[in-house]
Amino acid sequence: MRCLLCDRVVEKIETWTGLFSRRQKWTTCASCMAKFERVSEQAYEGIRTIYVYNEAMRDWLHRLKFSQDAIIAHVFADEIKKLCSHYKKAVIVPIPMHPAKKRARTFAHMDVLLEAAGVRYTHLLEKTTTDTQSQKSRVERENSATLFTRNAIQLRKDTHLVLVDDIVTTGTTIRHAHEVLKRDGFTHIEVLVFISARK
């Protein structure tokens, strides 16, 4: 078995469950995983983050989003599955990608991350702009027009929702998504973001 990131051979002790599993087995070596830095202190109010945006995470995210290397979504699949399982009976709501961007990149990376982890999700939002927030200044982000609209999928307004995204910088994207759902009447919304741009 080879590491998804460096392609070195990794010896992995097989379990009985693994031997009879039909799922493809993926692994990442300890050396590569050690390069990822966990968040030591939450830097955003109301947003739970897991990893810091360092060089290793930058490279991983670039491969996933811009090199269409969907297979490396499996690097964090087990962890994402475990994180999402903590939200009992919640509906996982990924931040969507604009259809034009999805066509250009061939897949929506948040969907791929959740699917690799075997996490069920529901899209409640639609992206209204193809603008990239990372290319804007802080002032431009904070003054952005509404980035999302609510789609036609109906849920009870007391449904526990968990918004999930890959990375948070200023929090503008999450704030816009949260506001749209709140205006629609949802009262129990939590936020889980995999990567924090702040240390």
Automatic annotation (TrEMBL):
InterPro entries: ComF/GntX_DNA_util-trans (IPR051910), PRTase-like (IPR029057), PRTase_dom (IPR000836). Pfam families: Pribosyltran (PF00156). Residues 129-197 form the Phosphoribosyltransferase domain. Coiled coil: none annotated. Belongs to the ComF/GntX family. This is Late competence protein comFC-like protein. It comes from Candidatus Kurthia intestinigallinarum.
